[in-house]
Write a structure and sequence with these properties.
The complex is a heterodimer of chains A (254) and B (393).
Chain A (H helix, E strand, L loop, with lengths): L2 H7 L4 E7 L8 H10 L4 E6 L9 H13 L3 H7 L3 H4 L4 E5 L1 H7 L1 H11 L3 E3 L5 H14 L3 E3 L1 E2 L5 H10 L4 E4 L13 H12 L6 E4 L5 H10 L2 E4 L1 H10 L4 H9 L1
Parallel strand pairs in A: 1-2, 1-9, 2-3, 3-4, 4-5, 6-7, 7-8, 8-9
Chain B lengths: L9 E2 L2 E2 L8 H16 L1 H15 L5 E3 L1 H7 L2 E6 L9 H14 L4 E6 L3 H13 L2 E7 H6 L1 H9 L3 E5 L6 H14 L4 E4 L9 H9 L1 H14 L6 E5 L4 H7 L9 E9 L10 H4 L1 E5 L2 E5 L24 H9 L2 E7 H15 L5 H7 L1 H4 L7 E6 L7 H8 L2
Parallel strand pairs in B: 4-14, 5-6, 5-8, 6-7, 9-10, 9-14, 10-13
Antiparallel strand pairs in B: 1-2, 3-4, 11-12
Classes of the chains: A alpha/beta (254), B alpha/beta (393).
Chain lengths: 254, 393
């Protein structure tokens, strides 16, 4: 069974962390992953940086720009992750935009992910229908779970369709926003979380965007299986480097 | 072969809507409605009336006698430079502001590079009394101060794009992010035939008035609707899409697309996407774009701010791949000389974008009886400082 599915079966609320590979320094990737696992994180999204990240706010875009300046490429990331499974056992997901994958070759990219022990991919700008028609069989051939996003604006029918072609979890975007832009959750978000929970989907939901501390983590996981923190963690890395990761994680989990 | 868009939003292999789920409802709403709205008699009537009374259409098709004599062929200039706001851009913004109104939107966002599309958008927003926010790269704001002032006078808010390379592509990213953050009340007026479906098709259809007019104007002057050649410059490609539109499926009319070679195609400072680009995805569209081997989008260069876009609309990628259009690259120097030549021979100061299209006459020989229509996409007032600096006037 895929590590993501195993993790989703555990009877606990999951904390997933996003970071941009190659930031703050080119070769921090493995240290960050290992420290995150040691700190008790359940799942990691490794961001493959892109020059034009449409769905991301200023924090993640700035870290991506910096990572690219540092020399991060798809090839470099795969080299850094070559032996990651010797030391890390939690699910690893690569999150990135479609163009770098397209240039690497979608099949070659998926094959490499399987060799390394990557469990899934999140590609915000790969549309559901294009994936379904052109790439689904390739992802499945290499044992990769593709994670789709839903937002407060996604229609009920479309959520059901996305649920029907998902085989891991659904990435629930907390509000109509890019990453890192929301300040706390109000009734609108809570109602939305509740509405989705009431749909009793086949795939559990993990909430992302706008989670930055214990409060928002708790609010999000009241209805959902887990939550993802990205921008707030990147800010922590900018201020504290890679050695105080545990402080951040324990402040979220409490 | 059919060169129009298919029902799935593709021109051959190019196009589609590679967008994050957050944008799906906005783009889908537009996709489901744009053709029906454009077909409504009341929409057509309002669009046509504004193009006539406000923009000043039809723009003249002018026989350029002295230029024709010099190159020993028959050259007609389609005078989009005479439109209100000085370029073809207004055809699209008029269409899209009417579209936005019918979709019930009360807030407009736009991206701009040199500022021409920003000005055209600010203009129609003022006309309709709708809030207007224009994203513009921080570097472009510094380079294009007069257009920034114009937008402000017209009541628009200009927000600097400070991410990435701080130019057009980043302004586009910022506008898309704004749309993600404001999914319900906002319409995004894209300025060219780029972006996710249905934008390339919608913008091309609003610009198609250009070739529609060429047909009847040429019929009147030459007894035929069909020229032998249509020449247009291509950045994103909206003026070319408009000038080609009604000729796309008539292969007797040869299409020439002129890209900016910058300092030279091999110089590393160029914007010749068809030569230097590879298939990929930019701003939600599968097309040709300039990128690293690793798939990172690179920053193009041209003396013309309107041509330095790292991609090209999916229609043009298809026209290139199928060979339907001939792509020619013109350097900064060739364009500037061609622009000055038009001033001296015809008394018309063209935009530097347009000067690239005129640069073709030194590169390619036409027959004396060929009818060659050039899309004179914009006037050169905005480029005066560039001309002054270049020619040390």
């Amino acid at each position: 069974m895929n590590r993501i599915n195993q993790k989703l079966n555990e009877d606990k609320k999951l904390l997933s962390i996003y970071f941009t590979a190659g930031y703050p320094n080119l070769n921090d990737t493995l240290t960050i992953i290992e420290n995150l696992e040691k700190s008790g994180v359940d799942m990691i999204e490794i961001g493959l940086p892109f020059s034009d990240p449409l769905a991301d706010g200023p924090t993640i875009q700035a870290s991506s720009t910096e990572a690219l300046k540092n020399g991060m490429t798809t090839e470099v990331l795969f080299k850094q992750l070559k032996d990651v499974r010797k030391t890390v056992s939690i699910p690893l997901i690569i999150m990135g935009y479609f163009n770098p994958m397209l240039q690497y070759g979608v099949e070659a990219f998926c094959k490499k992910c399987q060799e390394i022990g990557i469990d899934g991919l999140i590609i915000p700008d790969l549309p559901v229908d294009v994936y379904n028609e052109q790439y689904k069989s390739t992802f499945e051939k290499y044992g990769l779970i593709n994670v789709f996003l839903i937002t407060p604006q996604t229609s009920k029918e479309r959520i059901k369709f996305i649920d029907s072609i998902s085989n891991g979890f659904i990435y629930m975007v907390s509000s109509a926003s890019v990453t890192g832009s929301s300040k706390g959750f109000g009734d609108t978000q809570t109602n939305y979380f509740k509405r989705i929970a009431d749909m009793q989907l086949n795939n559990p939901q993990i909430v992302g965007f706008g989670i930055n501390n214990n409060d928002t983590f708790t609010q999000a996981t009241t209805y959902a299986k887990g939550a993802i923190i990205g921008s707030a963690f990147i800010k922590h890395l900018s201020n504290n480097g890679v050695n105080k990761i545990e402080d951040f994680i324990s402040s979220v989990r409490k | 072969m059919n060169y129009n868009i298919n029902e799935k939003g593709y021109y051959g292999d190019f196009g589609g809507a590679f967008i994050p789920e957050m944008l799906y409802p906005n783009v889908e709403e537009l996709r489901q409605n744009y053709l029906n709205i454009m077909a409504e008699p009341s929409f057509k009537a309002e669009f046509d009336q504004l193009l006539k009374d406000y923009v000043g259409r039809p723009s003249p098709l002018y026989f350029a006698k002295r230029l024709s004599e010099k190159y020993n062929t028959k050259i007609y200039l389609k005078r989009e430079d005479l439109n209100h706001t000085g370029a073809h851009k207004i055809n699209n913004t008029i269409g899209q502001i009417l579209m936005a109104k019918r979709l019930g939107k009360n807030r407009i966002i736009a991206e701009t590079g040199a500022g021409q599309h920003g000005v055209a958008t600010a203009t129609v927003c003022a006309l309709m009394g709708i809030e207007c926010i224009v994203y513009m790269g921080e570097i472009d704001i510094a380079r294009q101060a007069p257009n920034v002032a114009r937008m402000k006078m017209l009541g628009a808010t200009v927000i600097p794009a400070t991410s990435g390379s701080k130019t057009l592509k980043d302004a586009t990213n910022e506008a898309i992010r704004d749309w993600i953050n404001n999914p319900v009340d906002t319409h995004y007026i894209i300025g060219s035939v780029v972006g996710p479906h249905p934008y390339p098709d919608m913008v091309a259809k609003f610009q198609a008035v250009v070739s529609e007019e060429i047909k009847f104007q040429l019929k009147d002057k030459e007894g035929t609707e069909n020229p032998d050649y249509v020449i247009a410059c291509v950045g994103g490609g909206s003026n070319a899409a408009g000038a080609y539109y009604h000729y796309l499926n008539n292969e007797n009319v040869k299409l020439i697309a002129v890209e900016a070679a910058g300092l030279g195609v091999d110089s590393g400072e160029s914007a010749a996407t068809s030569v230097l680009g590879k298939e990929g995805i930019i701003h939600g569209s599968k097309t040709l774009l300039m990128q690293t081997n690793d798939g990172q989008i690179t920053e193009p260069y041209s003396i013309s701010a309107g041509l330095d876009y790292p991609g090209v609309g999916p229609m043009h990628a298809h026209l290139y791949k199928t060979g339907r259009a001939e792509f020619i690259s013109i350097t900064d120097d060739q364009a500037m000389q061609a622009g000055l030549e038009l001033c001296k021979l015809e008394g018309i100061i063209p935009a530097i974008e347009t000067s690239h299209a005129l640069g073709v006459f030194e590169q390619k020989t036409f027959k004396p009886n060929d009818i060659v229509v050039v899309s004179l996409s914009g006037r050169g007032d905005k480029d005066l400082q560039n001309y002054i600096d270049y020619f040390k006037i």
